[in-house]
Structure formats: C-alpha cells, structure tokens
Amino acid sequence: MTSSPTAASIARSPSGGPRSARAEGPRERRPRHARRRVHPWRLRRDRRGHRRVRPLGAASRTSLRRTRRRRGEVLDVTAPDLTPRPVDPVPSRRRRRIGPTLILIVAIVAGGVVVTQFLTSAVDYYCNVDEVGQRDGCDPDRRLRLQGTVTEGSVTSDGLTTRFDIEFADAVIGVDYDGEPGGIFKECIPVVVHGYFDSDRDRFLGDRVEVKHSDEYVSVNDARLSEARESACQPSA
C-alpha cells in the first residue's frame, strides 16, 4: 500500500505544478571569498599578542606588484643613485703618529724657552757699580743687584720718589727708588739696590734697597764690603 504524498512534502511550483523538496531550483551561491579557507599564514598577531584574521580583501604588496607586472604597469620605484663617490684617502698610522709627536716637541721647546727666560730675568746678579757693562752677567739690559756706597749729599725726595747716587771705585750711577727706603738708610753707607735700568740706561730704577746685608752675602762678598767701607765718605754730623 503506497502512501500518498502529504502537503508538507509536496511543494508547488510557481506554475501551479507540484515539485519535490530537493527540486527547488538552483541554490543561492555564496560569494567566493566567503567560501575560501583561511590559511594559517594569513593569521597574524597584533600588538597585544592575539591572533586575528587578516582581511582577505586587502592585497599584499607582493600580489599587488605581480598584478601590476601582468598588466604592464610601470612601478613607481625610485632607482638608487649608483654614482661612485670620491673616497678620501685614509692616512697611514705613521702619518697619524707624526702630528701628535711634532705638537709635543713644539710644546716642550716652547716651555723650555719660557722657563729659561723667566729664570734668567728672575735671577739678580750682584754687581759693583764699576762692573756694569764690564763683567759677564752685569749687562745693563737685565735685572741686577747694584752694590755701592750712597754718595754724600745726593739723597733727595719729593714724597713719592727718592733719588740718590751710589758709587764704587770712582764709578757713579743715579738711582730712582719708588717710595722711602726707610730703616737706617742714609748717606755714606754701603747698600745693595735691586732693580733695572731705564730705556735710556741713564738711571737705575730700584724697587728694593738692602742696607743690612745677610750673613750669606757677607760671607761671599766680604772683600766687596771691605772695599766699600774703606772708600765710603764720612756723613756730616
């Protein structure tokens, strides 16, 4: 006994005729990209470390370049500048060592010259009045220590500068001292004046006067002091 088809199993066509449930006509096709399988290489990680699906509609750079090449389009790629550039020659190690060595040598020589000049100008030579310009080391263009006796009646002062003459063995040199010598400075006593000659070499510009000589000076220059005392004048009372 055959069962008759029910109304639920039989559908009618638009023309009115019956049709089965499978024969409903062509199915609605899904878009191609919706049916494509997502490959693992299309999954990428975002900044937080989670994987997310790469959009299928976004073409990669490689596929875009291939598409353009197939179409014959010219890629907008700037060609690198391959022009050879001039290369500065690298100095050898020997040349690089010569420079600092020369600088060091020049610095040492300059320092030696400066120190020599300083020591030469700082050293005062003891010279008698008659030895200026006559004995080695008593040149008038350098700093000296003049040893002589204060000439009688030659001491004058204006409150700022004290002027007097010193003599030894019939040689006389005028001295200009800035200020008052003080102490036991007076006429007819042997003194030692520290200073240098002026530009005209007429006057000796003193900046220090020693009346009482040190024991070291007396032991070395005893003969000078004895000769100075013998030739010294007698100060007026």
Q: Can you walk through the features of this model?
A:
With 237 residues, the chain is an alpha+beta fold. It has a domain at 125-231: OB fold (Dihydrolipoamide Acetyltransferase, E2P) (Beta Barrel), CATH 2.40.50.140. The chain has 5 helices and 11 strands. It has helices spanning 32-35, 61-71, 93-122, 215-220, 222-231; strands at 11-12, 18-19, 43-45, 51-53, 125-128, 144-150, 156-157, 161-168, 171-178, 190-197, 203-210. The strands form 3 sheets. The chain has a 5-stranded mixed barrel with strand order 6-8-9-11-10. Strands 1-2 form a two-stranded antiparallel ribbon. Mean pLDDT is 71; it is low at 1-11.
Please count the helical segments.
5
The CATH superfamily of the domain at 125-231 turns out to be Nucleic acid-binding proteins
Share of helical residues:
25-40%
Count of DSSP E strands?
11
Neighbour order of strands in the largest sheet: 6-8-9-11-10
Q: Give the uncertain stretches in residue-range form.
A: 1-11
CATH class of the domain at 125-231: Mainly Beta
Task: Give the N-to-C terminal Cα separation.
Answer: 182 Å
Could you please say which CATH topology of the domain at 125-231 applies here?
Answer: OB fold (Dihydrolipoamide Acetyltransferase, E2P)
Shape: rod-shaped
Q: Supply Rg.
A: 58 Å
Task: Assign the structural class, choosing from mainly alpha, mainly beta, alpha/beta, alpha+beta, or little secondary structure.
Answer: alpha+beta
Order of helices and strands: EEHEEHHEEEEEEEHH
In the CATH hierarchy, the architecture of the domain at 125-231 is Beta Barrel
Largest sheet: 5 strands, mixed, barrel
Strand-residue fraction?
A: 15-25%
Average pLDDT across residues?
71
